[in-house]
Amino acid sequence: QVQLVESGGGLVQAGGSLRLSCAASGRIFRINRMGWFRQAPGKEREFVARVTWSGGNTNYADSVKGRFTIARDSSSYTVFLQMNNLKPEDTAVYYCAARSDGRVEYDHWGQGTPVTVSS
Question: How many other C-beta atoms are found inside a 10 Å radius of the C-beta of residue 59?
Answer without folding.
Answer: 14
